[in-house]
Structures
1.
Amino acid sequence: MVSRVIPVDPFDLVVFGGTGDLARRKILPALFRRFCSGQMEDDSRIIGAARSEHSRDEFRQMVAEAIAEFNTSTTCEAGTVEAFLERIDYVNIDAKGEEGWEDLHNLMIPGRVRAFYFSVAPSLFGDLAERLHKHGMADADSRIVVEKPFGRDLDTAKDLNATLAQHFDESQIYRIDHYLGKETVQNLMAVRFGNMLFEPLWNSQYVDHIQITVAETVGVGGRGEYYDRSGAMRDMVQNHLMQLLCLIAMEPPAKFDPDAVRDEKLKVIRALDPVEPIDIVRGQYGAKDGKPDYPTDVENPRSTSESFVALRVNISNWRWAGTPFYLRTGKKLKARSSEIAVVFKETPHSIFGEEAGRHRNILTIRLQPNEGMDLDVTIKEPGPGGMRLVDVPLDMTFADALGPDGEDVPDAYERLIMDVIRGNQTLFMRGDEVEAAWAWTDPIIEGWETRGDRPVSYDPGSSGPDDALMLMHRDGRKWREIRS
Ligand code: NAD
């Protein structure tokens, strides 16, 4: 099954921070892949803009190196890189000064879609918005893409929303959460709302509980200082895990329209109960095999930030009352694996008797690696040994299902950037959603600070602290194994 590629209208995309890590690893390779696929018309342009001085040729060389290092596509024809580089330009610009802004303005082609990707430190988001406006680039054809983190609490998120709103309409602001661009995440909506099979069962009557796990094997890497100011709650739960929870829990929108979808997600966030301290476990990874512990990694011996968090979350509405959502995320865990598991209740009565054991259906949505879905169904164990039951997965791995040779599953950034160009905000967070998520997160973090809570230690390469296992054990449930 080869997917149809519909070219988008010619556009100008300005990548502020075009020489930075995110641009090199994700944004530029994603654009290259869309170019390879034929989705970008030949006269679309990508303009890098950053503080460092480079000629256009030097920047093109940087882009070529980024593609060589980070592009994973195997389907591009020879000569495509050269053709792509023809579309690349560079402007030396200072977000906080006046340098370069007129040059950028002069480069813009009137009347076509212009997207400005803010891939710079969040402290510069306001400066960029203001200067775009001042230099006549905040018109009806313009849109801005804002990276995470969007604030560090409710007050800072409100301030940032207010600053951006002075220069751009909400319909022009694309707050990016790359989890929402994953093929599987969109498939979650397709599965729920495109099939008769699941939606009737998608409630507390049939679903026992839901687990959302985002596990990483890496530590904080070079981001120690930034990470330590955030911790897992701010860095992962408030945005990525919250968005996944919303997509699982939301009511069916009347149509697949940006505001209809985002209205439903907002209702979920507003229905979240406050989380009691007993329902949260925080952890910090310890030292192992000569590798430093978390406080050493972040160069803050007294750090109280968490590199792991697990929570039990309740949603107080008709659909979900009584069905807990268990969320966990952490660094230096035993495998790199992100998944959502919808664990259904057992059948009310087993006609096969006690010896057949207890079985339940589990729908697993794998975000990484190996994007896809499994549905565990109970069948008879083959053979003449009587009526013994086993659970087997119905496996839908997207790379297998989507193409004869395992056609590449598009990267989240590819989808999201093309959505910006098409003007489709469905997969981007609205300002009120972000604020509602902070309003729920803030009291949790404030509680840790006022009580002086410290994270517990866990072994690198484990599934997190033992207390996190207890969080489910005490409810008579257990976490799924973290495995890649
Ligand atoms: P980086 O430090 O690698 O790059 C920053 C870029 O901003 C550079 O191109 C630099 O030249 C430019 N810059 C700095 N000051 C400037 C100024 N005054 N005017 C114009 N340009 C200026 O940062 P990064 O890791 O690429 O992150 C960029 C944004 O993306 C941040 O908001 C970050 O939180 C977010 N983000 C990054 C990652 C990641 O994996 N790197 C992941 C998610 C979100």
2.
Amino acid sequence: MAAAADWWRTGVVYQIYPRSFADSNGDGVGDLAGIVAHLDHLGGASESLGVDAIWLSPIYPSPDFDFGYDVADYTGVDPRFGTLADFERLVAACHARGIKVILDLVLNHSSHRHPWFRASRTGRDGPFADWYIWRDSPGQTPTARRRRPNNWRGFFGGPAWTWDETRGQFYLHTFLPQQPDLNWRNPAVRAAIKDVVRTWLARGVDGFRLDVFNTFFKDAALRSNPVRPGAGGGWGSQVHLFDRNRPELVGALAELRAVVDERPGRMTVGELFDGTAAEAASYAAPGHLIFDFALLGLPWSAAAFAEAIRKRDASFGPEVWPTNVLSNHDQPRHAGRYDDPGADASVGDARAKIAAAFLLTQRGTPFLYYGEEIALRALAIPNSEAFDPQARRSSADAPAWNRDQARGPMPWQSGRDGGFTNGQPWLPLPPDLEFRNVARQARDPESVLSLYRQLLRVRRESQALQRGSQEAANVGDADVLAYRRRDADRSVFVALNFASRPAAIRLPEPARGGPWRISLTTHRRKPGDLLAEPVILAPLEALIAYD
Ligand code: GLC
């Protein structure tokens, strides 16, 4: 079936962290051929999840100071992941299954090993001299240290400026010193970026995630940020007025999007870095989504979820299309976040099912993170053993968690190394591998994986879920999150019991005169059955009904 032109709105996107999805050559690191070998899991087969697109975290050559988010060649493929021919095979195999391919574009900064930066640091003249943000030191401190151009901090701790001996100037880096920020004010930089986008579009790519897009422009005068008194010395110690969200971004973003729009049916999703829902709404456009992360970090509470949605709806209004994300490669996995420390993992799994029902029935485009469909939890890896630069640089001033914990190998089956690799996996497999793996959950109709499959099917069959409007429903129990989705001829009612006790709920008036029928529940009732009051939800039951 041909995908809708607005698949970016109706579809479900699945994020793959390529290092950790599947290793085909035994080096312990996942690769593109490994992804191709596991496409049945994602789409095109009867037992697939049925996702519409995959987003690959960066696959470009990188020295991995920030695991691919420091790019040394924007149009190449890192040999550890494969070759360009492997990439083309991946795109063809995905397209044959009706799966779109989204790449991660890291355009705020490159690697310090990128040829552009190598050339730029050689001196103040030459074609690349102005491709990064270089500044003289404004003088020396009384203790004979060079003053920095302003007070900006790096997100991973330390100042955002590093002195370069070769060029005799400071350069700016919002993240690591090995991730120098590109100078978006230079038209030659913007032209080179557009060439990168066109190259990947010509290779069949359907969309791009724009890494930290709202940091592309900095204040023209590089004014210092206001300081928050008493907030330490890290990123959070400043109000980030001048190092992101600059007005020039809007025009540059439009230029970049116009290149993407040269080919119909292509999209972008911008990662709003450290921003609010109102900022997210202001940057969204048809075909161009924004991650606002309003839902990340919520406690396990129906009221907290309801309030987050209410606030976001107030910013987004009925026109702007949101994205829904509970986990990604930068955040602790949500099944672990929602675990009840006093209960066993079955309670956490039941909560993960509720979360899945939420994610796949909320208004907006859902983004799933590999492994969440089997409710993977965090790996226990202390900061002292981290690969993640954020954790390695963690300090009292800029405390940080270890993102490796959310980036572990996918457990495909039981047995040594979970079918992920024949070699030594770069990160350990989870300790509950024997029962928490894809093959085992695929056989179990009650598993989290089976529920994801059913939810994706229900969503695929419902225009109201894919495109409809949304309104909160008051069912009379604050522990039940309930809402209604509506399109021209159907409405869908969703009730999620966040509590580990039964909950009696009131049904809303059916839009078409009723009655409500069950579309899916995580408990006993059968699809197609009529719903009549009183409806008692079981503990941690998710119920989806239609009229
Ligand atoms: C984004 C990425 C993150 C990376 C950072 C710097 O936030 O998601 O993984 O470390 O940008 O590129």
